[in-house]
Amino acid sequence: MKKIVIPIIALFVISACNQLNSKSEKTVKEGDDTVANVDISVSKLDALTNLVEEEEQRHAKEHKLLFTAHGSEPGWYAQFYSDKLKLVVDYGKDSLWIEDTFENLDDAKGYNYSKAKSENGEKYALTISIANTPCVYIASGDKEDRNVTVKLNNKTYKGCGSFAK
């Protein structure tokens, strides 16, 4: 008899505490008091999804990718955004993020950038030169818009780059 009564009492307690009404709202009760009403409608989920998408679009506009460059021997790449630069060198052994403005990168005459900084006890000196001449990437034979030279702490990296589309 105990085996039948205990599950029935448990089912009664659960159904008394949590009820789903006809408006698709979940009512949480504690005794005779209603603790909270929670709307579980699809429209709230849609609103949350739209909010996340709007945030992603805002982030993409703020951090717009402008230009990418890469080279080999040793392998490296750079991504220029409107407000920062990501540089990865020596096949990923070293990387550098620089927050700066790169909006004038689309200069038809070419582009030169130079920065020296000491951060967390580490110093770096960086110069980047983007020449407005076509480039053939030797490793793959792909053609790109610009020749790119990066010099980081007295080590030179050469390669090709193009503007993001």
Strand order of the largest sheet: 7-6-5-4-13-12-9-8
pLDDT < 50 stretches: 5-21
Query: Which structural class do the helices and strands define?
Result: alpha+beta
What is the β-strand count?
A: 13
Mean pLDDT: 76
Distance between the termini: 74 Å
Strand count, sense and barrel status of the largest sheet are: 8 strands, antiparallel
Percent strand equals: over 45%
The number of distinct structural domains comes to 2
Based on CA atoms alone, the radius of gyration comes out at 29 Å
Q: What is the 3D form?
A: extended
Summary of the model, kept short:
The protein has 165 residues and is an alpha+beta fold.
Description:
The chain has 165 residues and is of the alpha+beta class. It has 2 domains: 2-62, no CATH class; 65-163. The protein contains 2 helices and 13 strands; from the N terminus they run αβββαββββββββββ. An 8-stranded antiparallel sheet has the order 7-6-5-4-13-12-9-8, with no helix packed on it. A 3-stranded antiparallel sheet has the order 1-2-3. It has a two-stranded antiparallel sheet with strand order 10-11. The chain is extended and about 75 Å long.
Topology (SSEs and partners):
Blueprint: H1 2-17, E1 18-20, E2 25-30, E3 33-39, H2 42-62, E4 65-71, E5 76-81, E6 84-89, E7 94-99, E8 111-119, E9 122-131, E10 135-136, E11 143-144, E12 146-152, E13 155-163
Antiparallel strand pairs: 1-2, 2-3, 4-5, 4-13, 5-6, 6-7, 8-9, 9-12, 10-11, 12-13
